[in-house]
Amino acid sequence: MNEPTIDNTFEDPCQRAPLVLNHTEFASVTTAICQANESPRPPRAWYIAFAISSTLASLFGLLVLYLIITGVGVWGNHSPTMWGFPIINFVFWIGIGHAGTLISAILFLFRQKWRTAINRFAEAMTIFAVICAGTFPVIHVGRVWVVYWLFPFPNQMDLWPQFRSPLLWDVFAVSTYFTVSLMFWYVGMIPDLATFRDRAVTKTRAIIYGILALGWCGSTRHWHRYERAYLLLAALATPLVLSVHSVVSFDFAVAQVPGWHSTIFPPYFVAGAIFGGFAMVVTLAVPSRQLWGLKDFITMRHLENMNKIILLTGSIVGYAYLMEFFTAWYSGARYESFAFINRAFGQHAWAYWIMLFCNVAAPQLFWFKRCRRSIPVMFFVVMCVNVGMWFERFVIVISLEQDYLPSSWAYFAPTWVDLAMLIGSMGLFLTLFLLFIRYLPVIAMAELKAVMPEANAHPAGAHGSADDQNGEAVS
Amino acid sequence: MSAHGQHANDSTGEVFGLLAEFETPEQITRAACAVHDAGYKLWDCHTPFPVHGLDKAMGVKPTILPVLVFFGGLTGVTLGFLMQWFTNASSLKAWFFGMVRGYEYMISGKPMMSLPAWIPVMFETTVLFSAIAAVALMLVFNGLPRLYHPVFKSKRFARATDDRFFVVIEARDPNFDRSTTHTLLETLNPTSIEALEA
Q1: Which domains does chain A carry?
Q2: CA distance B152 to chain A (A)
Q3: pLDDT at site B10
Q4: Largest alpha-carbon pair distance within chain A?
Q5: ipTM of the complex
Q6: How near does any CA of chain A get to the CA of B193, in Å?
Q7: What is the CA radius of gyration of chain B?
Q8: Which of A151, A220, A449 to mutate to test the interface with B (most CBs of B within 10 A)?
Q9: How confident is the model at residue A156 (pLDDT cuts 50, 70, 90)?
């Protein structure tokens, strides 16, 4: 791998580190980002990845069909482990989605300019992860054909949903989250779709991107309202993302199962979601910047910043694991203490130790700059985190196995359908992601150009010296 | 970079306005100040990204959008509350695509009006309505979607979403005069000036 020669991870207090390397002209940025989408054929690796992931996605579809025809007995779920894999996968996927909103909304509010290179595909990742997440509770209800009963619609039976239940809060939280994320993603993409439209060489492209761009013409009067709307969406999406995972954690925390009934759950779940989500962003960013030639935009500095966030949120998660044990001991509640000792030394102890290794031990490598900047090391760590965060939800859900009544205790074992559906949902996620990087603008070009030093509109001579140096450092 | 007016006088039909092309954010900001000072009202700048300070230079008034989004949120929280109160804590009849009746759910002996338990859904409906209001009103105020615009007839204008910055002064503007407006634009040192067909 040949990285760009300029080291933009070096901190020089006299100047801002450049966020775009090797490009000083707006036109070359546009061309570099568009060329992968405009080339008649994507790279061979794309075809191979697409073949594999779409096969898995089809498998997922077939398994859902099999499940609906046969019934939920095809899963390993049993009493008392009623939730099993579907809810583990649901929480896993919805958590992945949260990093996208964090990058697009929270970093936007904090004016973190480095977000511009990665926010578009992190947002896309959010949408696709929420699609995967939403599928699982829907098929988990068993009778999929009456899933609309979850919504308060007027009906002859005079039957309404019960709004005191966290499961119903979830319906509203996840559907709102999906809608708002989709709008945020699309609104952000309108100017870039207009770029695609204006560069189109074929009629088909011109028509499709023309319709999608809604006739955007870059008018300053439009930009003015657009920026306001975007800021408002960011300000709305920020509490939304925190609320969504808090509500997901209420599914557990409001129940009285030992190991679930805990006030630490909302912040712990949110930190875990951001942790797992950032790991997935890095997982996707590393191969796509290589394949799509985006190393000048998704630079080592971007990856390093994300690795720092992984280290921070990983430490918060590690602290939460520790605190859970402390609370269990300090509460003096026998069932609570048993649940935690059982997690670490009981029948599914192996899952607990995998989780601890992947989520707490592995990210500690990121204390070292050399590790934060090494592609193989970072890929190893983020793959650990991806696995670890799935196991975290496994460990939590599997607490159901041994609750208050020893006579109902059981051992949960997944069936082949459980495992194939987990892999199949990954296929669905990757298929959607591959279609996205092929057909839609992967990097927010308009936003990226606006953070280049060349976009500074102050008249010549009025430049701060830092800006001038910055411009030279880039060229 | 001298002004080339070869396109300005060769059009015989009705004109939509004059289009001047610039290369840098500095130039367009300076041009915007000049056009604004000349007293034009029906004109616009087209840029590939929001140029910082350009809306101020043009004298664009702050949008009312945030205020309306606040009312969107207010609508959301009210509807979220009413929905939960009607369906879970009342036995009233109302028309909602047909006559429907609320049902008083008695759950764990909790009060009918369980406000704390309703807060998550009320919060979500607030965010949902505000977000929809923000996006929908932004598009409505911007007059989008509008797939046709006279500026799209210009070949040069394709670069407005790439790397060029444009000023368009519309012929409908009371101050517009083909030759004086052209002279004004020429003094701003554009890369090109072009008349847009209506």
Answers
A1: 26-455 (1.20.1630.10)
A2: 8
A3: 47
A4: 81
A5: 0.87
A6: 18
A7: 26
A8: A220
A9: confident
